[in-house]
Amino acid sequence: MTPRMTLAALCTAILTLAGGAQAQQHDPATPIAVASKIALRGEANNIAVREIRIVRKNDVLVVQADLANMGRSDRTVFYRFKWLDNVGNQVGDGESWKQLGVLGLGQQTIKSVA
């Protein structure tokens, strides 16, 4: 296993959602264990992160997150993943922000690879 893979194996992914300029607490529909791995920037606007899964495939870590729109209107979500080591330092340069449309009462799965 390469040093990068060894370091990535010690990492945790944090999903960052952007919706505005103010920090906000998690949506009540998001489980507390999942909310501890999310950093919101603004209001959640009826977007809940239902589940986060981390799996290892061929010595690569893959994280998947299920987003659910609890409202009837369509929402645009901006997100990125940050990989952290076991002491909380960011590993690598990080990802750029990505945009995703979530239909009203719909669900989307997003993923990232370490």
In brief, what are we looking at here?
This protein is mainly beta. The chain is 10% helix and 47% strand. The chain has one domain: Immunoglobulin-like (Sandwich).
Write structural notes for this entry.
This protein has helices at 3-9, 32-35, and strands at 12-18, 38-41, 47-57, 60-69, 75-84, 98-102, 107-113. By secondary structure, the chain is mostly beta strands. It has one domain (3-113): Immunoglobulin-like. Strands 2-1-5-6 form a 4-stranded mixed sheet, with no helix packed on it. It has a 3-stranded antiparallel sheet with strand order 3-4-7, with helices on one face. The protein is globular.
Provide tags for this entry.
114 residues; Immunoglobulin-like; 4-stranded mixed sheet; globular; disordered N terminus
Chart the SSEs and their pairings.
Layout: H1 3-9, E1 12-18, H2 32-35, E2 38-41, E3 47-57, E4 60-69, E5 75-84, E6 98-102, E7 107-113
Parallel strand pairs: 1-2
Antiparallel strand pairs: 1-5, 3-4, 4-7, 5-6
